[in-house]
Amino acid sequence: MKKRIGVVGIVVEQREKVGDRINSILSKHVEIIIGRMGIPSAEHNLSMISLIVEGTPDEIGALTGQLGNLKGVNLKSALTSVEIEEEGE
Question: Please, what is the Cα angle at 24 between 88 and 33, to 5 degrees?
Answer without folding.
Answer: 35
